[in-house]
Amino acid sequence: MAFSAENRQGTISGIIFVAIFAAAATFISSIEVVKALGISPLVIGIVIGIFYANTLHNQIPKEWGTGITFSGKKILRFAIVFYGFRITFQQIAEVGMSGFMVSLIMLSTTFILGTYLGMKVFKMDRDTSMLTASGASVCGAAAVLATEPVLKSEEHKTAIAVSMVVLFGTISMFLYPVLYAAVIEPATGFLHMTPQEFGIYVGGTIHEVAQVVAVPASIAGAPIDMANSAVIVKMTRVIMIAPLLIVLGVYLSMTMKKSGGEASAVKLVIPWFAVYFIGMAGFNSLGLVPQNIVNIINEIDTFLLTMAMTALGMGTIFSKFRGLGLAPVYTALSMFIWLVVGGFVVTKAVTAIF
Q: What is the DSSP letter of 140?
């Protein structure tokens, strides 16, 4: 046990050690140049963690390992639950059925496409394929973190998925402002989008929440309804991580049962933290907690997520990457093309219907 009498001191020291790294990541993310690029402290945390893992990991007491593991597992789940304070059901209702349907279609198709291509076409293992797919389809690094406990995957596979989110999410931040001019300027025709439609497109297809916020901010004179639509649709995708993980848990249980034979008793894998996440979002929707307190909760939650990401990075050794080659890049690129091209078509079709 992490906090048993013989492990307690080492666990606490390990947690403090991770927290110091997370604090450094938070500070770096607050620098104007880094903030302008939309790079979250979560991403910086895993980069710092990976650097440590491949340089100085033999320099700390082994007893601290339980604290690092605790940060990457238990603190992670706690932080995902409180991520629900970023969302209200009223926000989801604001964008109506069109925003909801774009979120649902893009999330489900991207996850299925990424998993299939990763496993069947590019011959990656199941966990790396699903983690990479969850990052692209839902909400970037936070989705990868939320999916990892359900799959019970290794830390280096999480790092691979996050690196793909960083790569193609960053490309999105430079691509979408260019696309904005291409779809707003035509007065009519298939390529034309209203600012609200473009906001739905941005929120339904870009990886990270921070990147979604950064795109409208980088477009001079962007209408406020475009930015609002983008963020709300993105948060709709975020809340869908809960049903996705529940469905994934059921699927994994069925797969295990089928491979083990009828006689084998397989426990249903339900990620309860995902259920609690929905409950927290529902509680937040009641408006019982003052907004200034919610803001503080979200800041603390971001720091806890950064700790979890840093801890996962600390378990990532480059030697474990051998044999994967460019398969993760090909998988993530395929999903990126679908998000940009397919997402445009889906947004146009859905907004025309609803």
A: T
Range of the domain at 321: 8-353
Q: Judge whether 182 lies within some domain.
A: yes
Alpha carbon distance 15, 65 (integer Å): 9
Assigned token pair, 347: 């947004």
For the entire predicted model, the pTM comes to: 0.71
| 8 A C-beta contact, residue 139 and residue 107 | no
In a domain, 1, yes or no: no
Instruction: Calculate the CA 58 to chain-centre distance.
Output: 30
3-19 per-residue burial string, b: 16 or more CB within 10 A, e: under 16: eeeebeebbbbbbebbb
User: Which helix (H) or strand (E) element contains residue 295?
Assistant: helix 291-314
Give CA angle at 305 (319, 156), nearest 5°: 10
Distance of CA 147 to the CA centre of its chain: 9
How far is the C-alpha of 175 from the C-alpha of 25, rounded, in Å? 26
Residue 317 lies in a domain: yes
> Is 118 buried (19+), middle (13-18) or exposed (0-12) by CB count in 10 A?
buried
Q: Which tens digit of pLDDT belongs to each residue from 115-167?
A: 999 999 999 999 999 999 999 998 777 788 788 888 888 878 888 888 888 78
Total count of domains within the chain = 1
Computed from CA positions of residues 158, 163, 168, 171, in that sequence, does the dihedral angle turn out positive or negative?
positive
Pair of tokens at residue 164: 């793909």
Q: Is residue 2 part of a domain?
A: no
